[in-house]
Design goal:
Blueprint lengths: L20 H20 L10 H25 L8 H8 L3 H5 L8 E8 L9 E3 L4 E4 L4 E4 L3 E3 L5 E8 L14 E6 L5 E6 L12 H10 L10 H9 L5 E7 L7 E8 L7 H11 L10 E4 L3 E5 L2 E7 L6 H19 L9 H10 L4 E6 L9 E5 L4 E8 L2
Helix pairs in contact: 1-2, 3-5, 6-7, 8-9
């Protein structure tokens, strides 16, 4: 299980009232019949078409709806069940710093600006902060600081940030953001991104927010515990799903933080800077700590496996093959879903057999222990071969 998932099994399920209409109906009808007998000493059984029974059924419907509302309202006061604004109100108990839902994050990249061809200036040229550059689809990025093209040089690079927050501005590879929109630097002729844009994220969803609220008490310590760094690192970007915190016992005060993004994606420089800024803040980092934020080390292995299907299931061969292929891909996703997760080929065997395979033969990889600073990744060139139908 990745770190930032709320474990609902820790807290038992709860119902604030009975909502089953059949149970409520039985209770109301039985109570009426009993009360009628007590008042009249006459036994009466309400038939299906009895006007009294029809009237009570109307009341039972209203009561069932009201009980559902009461149960839902009660549950929305508990972290296990709350959603949306109700979850925000639970988070508010921890104050605005720890309990607020994370807003959407802005994507960033590095932009290189170039002067006119063959032009060499004798003085520095300044590309001011706020200079706009956009991609062909209209997505715009603005520089976040003044960028100086030194005298004698023809280009210089600096950071830029998307104008609109969210994940939509991620993934523009080098060269795609290349249209100057607004600039005031003289002799400036071109601009292009030299890094892929990344770090943008949508508003924190309920699942991630619920997990952070659950961990919020860990953040109150100022002694630098592992869980506190995990909490604050996850608070830097809504797309962070796992964080590993490591410190070398032989070097006092050095803390290494390794974040992982949704889908097993490694953090780019934008996210690394976000996590560093959050965890290195004076009101979060213990005075004696030195914080380092890095992407996990990738431990990439090639997997080679072969599987067979029971001949008794020949009529379902195609659907089983598709299910096994999906399980094979799901295993690869699972393998890179958490930092420090050991390479476990037996997990692939389990998932593919559950999908309908009869037998799995693993050539590679072998079980491998992964340390808390590394991420196991299955090479995309890995091969799963279908061996055909096989008798029991």
């Amino acid at each position: 299980m990745a770190l930032f998932q709320y474990d609902s099994s820790v807290v038992p399920d709860i119902d604030f009232c009975q909502k089953d209409a059949s149970v409520i109906e039985s209770e109301i009808i039985t109570n009426y019949e009993q009360y009628f007998y007590l008042q009249t000493r006459i036994s009466k059984s309400l038939a299906r078409g009895d006007p009294v029974r029809l009237f009570l059924l109307c009341m039972i419907y209203q009561m069932t709806v009201q009980r559902s509302i009461v149960d839902s309202t009660g549950k929305e006061n508990l972290i296990k069940y709350a959603h949306g604004p109700d979850l925000d109100n639970i988070g508010a108990l921890y104050g605005p710093k720890r309990g607020s839902r994370l807003p959407a994050a802005y994507a960033g990249c590095t932009i290189q600006f170039t002067l006119s061809n063959n032009l060499t200036l004798t003085t520095d040229s300044i590309v001011p902060s706020g200079t706009l550059v956009q991609a062909s689809d209209g997505t715009q990025f603005a520089t976040t600081q003044d960028i100086t093209i030194s005298a004698g040089q023809t280009n210089a690079s600096g950071p830029a940030q998307a104008l609109i927050a969210g994940s939509a501005a991620n993934g523009y590879v080098a060269g795609q953001i290349n249209l100057l929109v607004q600039w005031s630097a003289p002799f400036l002729i071109g601009a292009v991104n030299t890094t892929t844009s990344g770090g943008g994220a949508d508003v924190e969803d309920d699942d991630h927010y619920r997990a952070r609220i659950w961990m919020a008490p860990e953040s109150f310590s100022v002694a630098g515990p592992k869980e506190a760094y995990e909490y604050w690192a996850a608070s830097a970007n809504p797309d962070i799903v796992d964080v590993s915190v490591w410190s070398d016992a032989s070097v006092a005060g050095q803390v290494y933080i390794y974040p992982l993004m949704s889908g097993g994606v490694l953090p780019d420089s934008t996210v690394i800077n976000q996590v560093y800024a959050k965890c290195n803040a004076d009101d979060i980092r213990p005075l004696t700590d030195q914080v380092f934020v890095q992407a996990p080390t990738v431990n990439q292995v090639t997997a080679t496996m072969e599987y067979w299907i029971d001949s008794a299931n020949a009529q379902f061969e195609q659907s089983i093959m598709a299910a096994v292929q999906s399980a094979w891909l799901a295993w690869q996703t699972w393998q890179s879903s958490e930092i420090g997760l050991d390479i476990v080929p037996s997990k692939a065997i389990q998932m593919m057999i559950d999908a309908g395979a009869k037998r799995i033969q693993v050539t590679a990889p072998a079980f491998t222990v992964i340390d808390e600073k590394s991420l196991a990744v299955i090479d995309p060139s890995s091969v799963l071969t279908y061996g055909g139908l096989e008798e029991k």
